[in-house]
Amino acid sequence: MTDALPDPLIALRPWEAPEVTSWGRLPMNAVDRRAGAVSLDGDWRFQLLPAPDAPVGEGWSSAYVPGVWTMQGTDDLPRYLNVRMPFAQFPPAVPAADPTGVYERAVDVPAEWAGRRIVLQVGAAESVLLVHVDGLPVGISKDSHLAAEFDLSGVVRPGERTTVRLTVVKWSDASHIEDQDQWWHGGITRSVLLYATDPLYLADVTVRARRDGDLRVDCLVRDSGGALPEGWYVSGELDGQLLTQDAEFDRANAEDERVSGFLGEARLRAAVPDVRTWTAETPELYGLTVRLHRADGTVADRSHHRIGFRDVEITGRDLLVNGERVFIRGVNRHDFHPLTGRTVSYDDMRADLVLLKRFGFNAIRTAHYPNDPALYDLADELGFYVVDEADIESHDHAHEIADDPRYLGAFVDRVARMVLRDKNHPSVIIWSLGNESDYGANHDAAAGWVRRHDPTRPVQYEGAAKRGWADPGLASDIACPMYAPLQDCLAHAMSGTQTKPLIQCEYSHAMGNSNGTLADHWAAIEATPGLQGGFIWEFWDHGILQRVNDGRPAGRGGAGLYGNGVAAPGHRWAYGGDFGETDHDGAFIADGVVFPDRTPKPVMFEHREIAAPVRIECFRHEGVVLSNHQHFRGLDWLSGEWQLALADGGTLTAPAELPDLRPGETAAVPLPFELPEDGGEAWLTLRVTTSRDEPWAPRGTVVCLPQVRLRHASPVKHAPVTHRAVEVDEDGLLIHPLLTAGPTLSLWRAPTDNDELGGMAARWRDWGLDALTRKVVAVRREPGRVAVVADHLGPGGAVRHEQVFTAVEGGLLVEECAELPETLDDVARVGSVFETVAGLNLLEWFGQGPWESYPDRGAGAPVGHHSLPVDELFTPYLRPQESGGRHGVRRFTLSAPDATGLAVRLDRPRQVSVTRHRAADLASAAHHDELVSRAGCVVHIDAAHRGLGTASCGPDTFASYLVPAGVHRWSWTLRVL
Ligand code: IPT
C-alpha cells in the first residue's frame, strides 16, 4: 500500500463521525460460519501509531490476535476509569493523541474457493476498525463487541496470497458510547476468520420454537450475483424429523408484488410432539439443520442451530418462562481475563458458567455489551436465562447523547445487530438497550426496532425504568432498577401500582468483603409477589496480573502464576492507578463474586445456599419437612446425606432418602437419628449433592447444605477456684503463657470497601477508633480474680471497658463490659482482641463455617465442627481489609501440631476472627502482596460486629446489623490445652 496517496478511510476521519457506524460491512445475521472457516488468529505484524492519521512506518513488531495491545508490551497501558471519560473532549470529539494499532498479515486464499463468495469476519475490535486488503479500502466498522463482516470476493484471488491490514483506532466518537465501568484497552479482542460460501447463500435464519412444540424457521436467501436463480428451495431437519416448507407462506409471497427476485424468503415448519421444553433447569436442546438447495436439489448452503422450545411472556407483573414465574438468580458478567484483559476463550467461558451453575446462579446479564457468541451457546447448553445487553453506555455524557441525532444511527445499529445475531438462542429471554446512558429518543428508536423485529421477548432498559417503575414507556417492560433499597422494592410491590416485574439489573455490589443482607433480600423476594430477583454486581474482580518489578501486565506469559485468589510472588492483581495513571477509580474495578483467577469468594457459598433447590422448612414431631424450591425439576438428580452435629459430641451421618417432590411440594421425612441425651446443642444438616453427572458438575458435587437446629445449648456453669492466682501487669493486661498481647478492647476493623465508600471509615477515623488511648482507671486484685477498669479515649468520646478475670476450674473466665457513649453510635465492632505465641497454626471450632461469614452474610455457613489451618482462614481481598471472620462461633481451639495450644468457649455464638494481621496492618496495605504475616495469631472475639452491607455502591446494611452505642457485655473462658 502506498501511504503517499490519501487513504479514503483515513481522510473520512470516521473516528469523529458518529453518523458513520459502518461502511462496506455486511448485515448481521444468525448463521454461524465458524465451522469450516480459515482462522486468522495468531501473530500479526503490528505497529502502534500515535494517531490514526500518522504515517505507517517500516518498523513492525508483532501482536497476537485476538488480543489487546495494551496487554502485549506496548507503552499504551490499561487504564481504569468508571464514569469519567479518559479525555476531556466533548462528544463526538477525541484527543489528537489517539493510539492506533496497525495489524497486517499475509493470507493464502484457498484455490478451491474459486467462484465462491469470500467473507472476512473480524470478531471484535475496539473502537474503530478500518479494513484494507492489498492496499484497497474495504470497510469500516464500529460497535466494539460484535463481529464485522466484509465481502472480499471481488478483492482477493483464490489460490493467491493477499495482505490483510486491520487498523484499529482506540479513541473515537464510539468511545463516548462505550464508557462502561471497566479497563480501557485497544485491539482486536475476538477471533478473525475467513470463510467462503456459494454465491447462493443463507443470509439469515430466524427460529421461533414455542413450548407447545410449534416450530417456525424463517430463511432469508440471497445470491451475490444479484437476482436469485430459479427454483431454489430450502429444507430442514430437526433431530432427524423433516420440516415442511410452509406452502401458505410461499403462496402469499408469490402473490405479494413487493417481493422481488433479489430477496428469497421461505418458511419451514414443524409441530414437535411431546416436546422437551427448554428452561434454565432443563436446558433441552434440539439440533436443527437448514439447507438451501439449487433447483437440481444440490445443496448450496447449510446452517446448523441448537434450538430450545420455550416461551417468555409478561403477564401482569410476572415474567413467565413456560408459564412459570421463575426467580432470576443473576449475575452481571463482563468478558474479562487477568492475562488477556478482554479476550476470553471457550474454555474460560465454560469455566465461568460451570462455576455459576455450581453456586446456584441461573441468569446472566451480559454487562454491558454483547458477549462472545460462544457464551450464548454455553448458556443454551448449561441452562441460563440471559439478559442480552447492547454495547451502549454513554455514562459521562449520557444526557447529551441520549437525544443527539448524530448518535441515533449508532443506537439503533448496536441494538439491532445484537438482536440479529442472538435471536435464536433460547437462553436469551430479554433484550437490554444498554446501560447508564440516561434516556432519550435514541433509546425509543432502538426499542421500536426491536419490538417490530422480535415481538417474542421483553425489552428492558434501566435508564427508562428510572422514570418510574410503573412508567408505561416504550423502552422497558421490566422495572429493572439498580441498587434499589429493599424497602423501596417491597413498598412498590405492595403499593397496588406495580405494572411490571421488578428484577434489579444490578444489586448487592460485591466489592471487597461485601454482599451483606443478600439472604434478607431473597427472603423478601421469595415471599413477595411482584419481586422476581436480580443480578448481583458482578462476576469478576477485574484485577490484571501485573509484574511488581516493572509494573507491566504479565500478559499471556503469566499463565499459572496465580492460584487460590492470590498472585504468585513478584506479582499482584493490579487495579486502577497501578499502571502509573494519576486519574483513576482505584479498586472499584475489583467488585466481583470471584477473584481474578475465578476463585470463588465466600459470598458464593452464601448464594449457593440462598438458591438451594431443596429446603428444610421446619422440624416437628420427630421429623423434618422438606420442600422442592425449583420451578421445573424433581429431586431425582439429587442425593442426600444427613449430618447431625452435636456441640458436645462429634458429627453423626446417615444416608438420606430424598422424597419424590414436584416443584413447590413439601413432604415430611422421619428424623434419621435418635437425638443423644447428652450431646448439647444439636444441628441437623442435609448435605445435598448431585446424584449423577450433570453437564456442569460431576456426581457428588455439593448443591446445598440446608440446616435446622434440633436443640438449643444449655447454659454453662463456671466453678471459681480461689487458690489459683490470676496475674495482670502494671497496665492491667493479662499475663498468660500463650498470649503476647491483650486481651484488650477493640472497636475498629480494617475498613472494608463498603466502610470506606459508605463514609463509615472516615467517621471511625474522626472518632479515633483506630488509635484509642487506653488509660487504666482501676485494678482490683482478689484471690483468684482480678478486675481491671480502663478508659479508651479518642476524639469521639470515652469508652469505659471492664474486664474481670476469674480463675475457674480448668481455666480462666473473662467477663467484659464496654459502655459506648451516644456519640459512638455505629462502630465497627465491640469485642476483645489478643495475640498469641507463634506456632498455633490450626483453628478448630464449633460454629458457622467453614468459609468466612459475617452477621449479615452468614446464611450459607452451616453450624458444625470445622477446622482449618490459620493461614487458610484469611480471604485475600485485592485491597486488604477486614477479612476472615467466622460468625456464630461457640468455641474454638487454636493448636500447634503437638496438640498444645489454647481453647476458648464463648458465652454465646459470637463473631470470631483468627488471622496473621492486625487491623492496622490490613488498613495500611494497598495490595495483598504488601502484607507481612505475623508469626502469632491475631484473635478477635466480638460481642457485636457490624454487618457488611453493600454501601460501596448501594444500600448499607440494615439497622439490625449495626453496633449501637450503650452497654455491651460478653464473656469467655480461656483454657490451656
Ligand atoms: C453501575 C454500573 O452500571 C456498573 O457498570 C458498575 O459501575 C456499577 O455501577 C458499580 O460497580 S452505575 C453506578 C453509578 C450506580
Task: Give a topology summary.
Layout: H1 8-11, E1 22-23, E2 38-39, E3 42-49, E4 61-65, E5 67-68, E6 79-81, E7 100-108, E8 117-126, E9 128-133, E10 136-141, E11 148-151, E12 161-169, E13 182-184, E14 187-197, E15 200-209, E16 214-223, E17 233-238, E18 241-242, E19 244-245, H2 247-255, E20 264-271, E21 286-293, E22 299-307, E23 312-315, E24 318-321, E25 324-325, E26 328-332, H3 346-358, E27 363-365, H4 373-382, E28 385-389, H5 398-402, H6 408-422, E29 428-432, H7 441-453, E30 459-460, H8 462-465, H9 486-493, E31 502-507, H10 518-527, E32 531-536, E33 544-547, E34 562-563, E35 566-567, E36 571-574, H11 603-610, E37 614-620, E38 623-628, E39 638-646, E40 651-656, E41 666-670, E42 682-690, E43 702-704, E44 707-711, E45 739-746, H12 753-757, H13 760-766, E46 773-782, E47 785-794, E48 797-808, E49 811-820, E50 829-836, E51 842-848, E52 863-869, E53 885-895, E54 901-915, H14 919-923, E55 938-945, E56 966-976
Parallel strand pairs: 26-27, 26-32, 27-28, 28-29, 29-30, 31-32
Antiparallel strand pairs: 1-10, 2-14, 3-4, 3-7, 5-14, 6-13, 7-12, 8-11, 8-14, 9-10, 9-12, 15-16, 16-20, 17-18, 17-21, 19-20, 21-22, 23-24, 24-25, 33-36, 34-35, 37-38, 38-41, 39-40, 39-42, 42-43, 42-44, 45-50, 46-47, 47-48, 48-49, 49-56, 50-55, 51-52, 51-53, 53-54, 54-55, 54-56
Helix pairs in contact: 3-4, 6-7
The structure holds 1-methylethyl 1-thio-beta-D-galactopyranoside.
